[in-house]
Design a protein that fits this description.
single chain, 309 residues, alpha/beta, Rossmann fold, eight-stranded mixed β-sheet, 10 helices, 8 strands, 38% helix, globular
């Protein structure tokens, strides 16, 4: 990590994360190790939140709802899509952020347990996330949601999926979320982007990892669809306003930088956070490192503005 000048606090977080070794190199072992690591960084849930699990169009979701009475016009809502390279992660892996978002925003948060690769390569995860968004819109009254105060958010692979959902909704002539919040997203940038070489051996995610995850998600050779890799889209007009946060020491950094520039060129408002001193996967360092707490402040502020909270 000598080439990446992390703060002592973030360095300690990285060291703790790297202390979790996978039992084996199989997909099952990878998932078991990731889950064990996630549990170590998951604090007790905040008080005042009711949590239940459901199926929306046969996709498992976890529903976080404040215990208070809903607003007369229905709850504002954030649909959250977890990271994990489309290969690892589940409802528990990101409970650390979904529960807190519901508490701090006083809003409903819906987390999606989409299908994972390689058993279910693209388009399975994308289709699951799109189906849940449409199911929530169609059933907003049943869920006591305000369909006009809904945002979509995700980190890493979840940021990819959130961007892809927005593209699909635009192409279908359907209403956009109030915000697409993309946190160190992987959007299909190629190896010519500077961050791919500058951060080739970055801690927690290196360039080799990026290639491995993408190959599991997209096993068929050839140019991917924009719904698989949103940087392939030729037209970014008419998309939801975006909050895009990247991490300085991350091979995926310039995916977010490049997407920000292309959205702005298409007339889409973007609130960009450069993530100075951050590494991929640092969301779990909440309250451990001030630079991560700043990322949360920016994310929460963007969600509050977009949802009129």
């Amino acid at each position: 990590m000598s080439d990446y000048p992390l703060s002592p606090e973030l360095g300690a977080f990285v060291a703790k994360t790297l202390g979790f070794s996978y039992p084996d190199t199989s997909i099952r072992g990878l998932r078991a190790g990731y889950s064990a690591m996630c549990r170590a960084f998951t604090p007790p849930r905040p008080a005042g939140i009711n949590i239940s699990e459901h199926l929306i169009d046969q996709v498992p979701v976890r529903h976080y709802r404040p215990v208070s009475q809903p607003p007369a016009t229905g709850w504002p809502c954030v649909l959250y899509l977890h990271g994990g390279g489309w290969v690892v992660g589940d409802l528990d892996s990101h409970d650390f952020i979904t529960a807190e978002l519901a508490s701090l925003l006083n809003a409903v948060v819906i987390a999606v347990d989409y299908r994972l690769a390689p058993e279910h390569p693209y388009p399975a995860a994308f289709e699951d996330c799109l189906a849940v968004w449409r199911g929530l819109q169609a059933g907003a009254a049943t869920w006591q949601l305000n369909p006009r105060r809904m945002a979509i958010a995700g980190d890493s692979a979840g940021g990819n999926l959130a961007a892809a959902v927005c593209l699909a909704l635009r192409d279908a002539g359907q209403a956009q979320p109030r915000l697409q919040a993309l946190i160190y997203p992987g959007l299909g940038g190629d190896d010519r982007l500077p961050s791919r070489t500058e951060c080739a051996d970055a801690p927690l995610l290196n360039a080799r990892d990026v290639h491995c995850y993408q190959a599991l998600y997209l096993p068929t050779p050839g140019k991917p669809s924009a719904y698989a890799m949103p940087l392939q889209a030729t037209d970014l007009h008419g998309l939801a306003p975006a909050f895009i946060a990247v991490a300085q020491f991350d091979p995926l950094r310039d995916d977010g930088v490049h997407y920000t520039g292309r959205l702005q060129a298409a007339g889409v408002a973007v609130d960009f956070h450069p993530g100075h001193g951050l590494v991929h996967g640092c969301l779990r360092a909440r309250r451990m490192a001030p630079e991560v707490d700043l990322l949360y402040e920016k994310l929460l502020a963007a969600l509050r503005r977009s949802l009129n909270l």
